[in-house]
Design goal:
Radius of gyration: 21 Å
Largest sheet: none
CATH superfamily: MetI-like
Number of domains: 1
Helix content: over 70%
Number of strands: 0
Shape: elongated
Order of helices and strands: HHHHHH
CATH topology: MetI-like fold
Strand content: under 5%
Length: 124
């Protein structure tokens, strides 16, 4: 799905900019490096943020692929549920610790996410 989000950002780059760069003597690599990549950077950042958040909360893969000594915070939280008792305090603590990196990351890249998500909505 993230490929389609990124494709829509790249499709909105005016072809005239690329044609002007080619007329000015840019090669294909220079065209990507100096024209396409800087213009599509908000879309790339927004896609990276959405991918990070989706991967961070991917519990089934973490449960299946983790080993006994190296588990993710989601798997640890699930281990606090037993047949005898549910340890709600420990679950809440594990979930809060697991949210800290995502919340900090979102606070750091919030302006890039908003800019990247609203860039495609404005037609000029």
């Amino acid at each position: 799905m993230d490929i389609f989000v990124l494709k829509s950002f790249i499709d909105e780059i005016p072809i005239e900019l690329e044609e002007a760069a080619i007329v000015d003597g840019c090669s294909r690599l220079q065209l990507i490096r100096h024209v396409t990549l800087p213009i599509s950077m908000p879309g790339i950042i927004a896609t990276a943020i959405l991918t990070f958040v989706a991967c961070w909360s991917e519990y089934p893969f973490a449960l299946l692929l983790s080993i006994r000594h190296a588990v993710t915070i989601n798997v640890v939280a699930a281990q606090f549920v037993t047949q005898a008792v549910v340890k709600y305090g420990e679950i809440a603590s594990a979930v809060a610790l697991g949210m800290i990196p995502t919340v900090l990351f979102m606070m750091l890249v919030q302006k890039h996410l908003v800019k990247g998500l609203t860039l495609g909505a404005v037609k000029g």
